[in-house]
Amino acid sequence: MGLREAICDGLKAKRHPIYIFGEQGRGKSCAMGCLYVSYKETPAVPQWLSLDTFIQQIIKCRTSRDGRCEIPNPTGFGNSIWRSECDWFHIASGCPVLFVDDIGIKPPTDTGLEIAYKLFNQRLTKDNPTQQMTFLSSNLSPEQLNSIYGPRIVSRVCRGTVIRCGGEDRRLKNAKYHDLF
User: Fold this and answer.
1) What would the pLDDT profile of 38-56 be if each residue is shown by its tens digit?
2) Within 13 Å, how many C-alpha atoms sit on residue 4's CB side?
3) Which of these, 68, 144, 148, 153, lies nearest to 118 by C-alpha position?
């Protein structure tokens, strides 16, 4: 079974979140990017975030004078966007489709663990009546994730469909090498 089929099986069975893991270069983020683009053509407006960047933004909000952080306008024109911690969590926990990329790219601090738990608890608990679709990717297996983030987060992140991406690094496989000497 390929990655596409495994994701489709999880979607058809409504077993989410869908947690995709494996070593770098296996196509996890690429597959999520394709799904993200496909959801952009539907009424369900997807959101994409890197867990590490999300944590950094929340910490910026907590340490700023007015509880907000500035995000440059993504178009490059016009005013920046200002968001509070509440805004960030409202967007991430309330959007119909959420993509969380690169979970565990850096070891979390205690504050990072608390923020990650809050995000996953708001988004992925069975008490969430809307059960929005969530896709997550990581280089960490569920066991590695458990040793870094703990069982409270793993039980939320891995309760749906868990997909391991194996094989060789596609980036290195497709690289073109030149011998100059």
Assistant:
1) 988 888 889 999 999 999 9
2) 1
3) 153
